[in-house]
Design a protein that fits this description.
The chain is of the alpha/beta class and 282 residues long. It has helices at residues 42-51, 68-80, 83-87, 104-113, 126-134, 166-175, 213-222, 243-254, and strands spanning 14-20, 23-28, 34-36, 93-98, 117-122, 139-140, 151-156, 177-188, 209-210, 225-233, 272-279. Strands 6-5-4-7-8-11-10 form a seven-stranded mixed sheet, sandwiched between helices. Strands 1-2-3-9 form a four-stranded antiparallel sheet, with no helix packed on it. Helix 5 (126-134) links the parallel strand 5 and strand 6 (139-140). The protein binds zinc ion.
Length: 282
Amino acid sequence: MIEVDCYQCKSNKNELYDTENGHNLVKCLECGLLFLNPRPGLEEINEASKSGLHKGDNKSKKFGEFDEKLKAAYLSRLNDFNYGAMFSEKKQYSWLDIGSGHGELVETLANFGGEYIDVMGIEPNVNKLKAAIDRGINLKFLDLETHQEKYDVISAIDIYSHLPNPPEDIAKWCAMLNQGGELLIQAVDSANLSLENQHKPYSLPDHFSFTSKKLLLQLLQELGMEIIQVESYRLPQYPVFSYLELFKQIGRLLSPGRSANFKFSPKYPDADLWIRAKKRES
Ligand SMILES: [Zn+2]
């Protein structure tokens, strides 16, 4: 484990904010970023992301599976962010999705962009990668440090908290964009919430940092990106209340081995932050 300074503002002034699984979440006293400190070293992080296993994980743990419901959610996001207009230009766009998991977004994009998109995803977890390739999804594992290719769009969904150093990682992606290229990035907007309103569990030590809308927009602008569109959605862990949903959860509560979720009305459910940004012409 290594001691780290704030990723966002480089300050070394932070205070203990909360603990989970024996790990410390600290708050930067300068900018308010929440981050795991001390944090596993880079080698350990890379090993864990390849195997999908983390210290203390049971080796028989499943790696999940392709989630059809996610595809519907992604399609709705692509429409909200007006990507239909992009693909109606009848130009060819290259799109790289980073941290694709089982490849739900890559498959959604391939259908959505049709002949006008050349989409590839990268995923370090060997089990997820193999499952996606078997399904015919264009997923690879490659080292971004040495990768030379450039793209028109780079997306990074549901991986912000897994990034070992978000400003460095996102700067790398910006450098991989073509002139006028775009980022589509998702993160949980939670660093600004008070302790009692946090979206727990934090999943420490798998998650390294938590940002906010203000901090992430600021970071993207500092990296030379122009913000095109910002949307906030309900976090998927909070079911929308209906009697049907309530009965479903009661059913889960009563079936052995399943867990129920009655978190219908948290104070800040709309923390699923999506940002579309464009590289400024240089
Ligand atoms: Zn800071």
